[in-house]
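Quick one, T. Sequence first:
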Amino acid sequence: MDQELHRLNRRIVAATSASDGAYYRWAVRSGVTPHTLDLLYALDDGQPHSQKQICEEWAIPKTTVNTVVRSCREAGYITLEPMPDQPRQRQLCLTPAGMAYAREALAELYVLENQAMAAAVERYGPSFVDALELYCASFREALAANLSEKEENDSI
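Structure tokens:
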């Protein structure tokens, strides 16, 4: 059974790596840096996000997010506003120019994603997303526990 699980894991890793590569190539071809694409994508949901949330949810290093935010602020695409429930943190907000830029930059990508999602949902149903989320969350939890255990052992 372990060999079969290993084979299935390799398929997921290969598929997600190829998908990440496709996003990277699409961003470069579109003239957007991959991390700018990530930031615009995260902010295009219309919800407030702090830099910390972006770092955690999108697994982007803090220094990278800071650099992209600075660049987007200088371009007039983002403002930093106090978060109502956490006044010491700032939420990233797309300006009207930023919203227009995000929608223009992401429009084609959303069409391509929707085509892929439609094919997957037609074949496997929407629960395949639940299954993938469960797999990813379980892996992150197992990895975090493993790293925590190793840190504890290293400190002994």
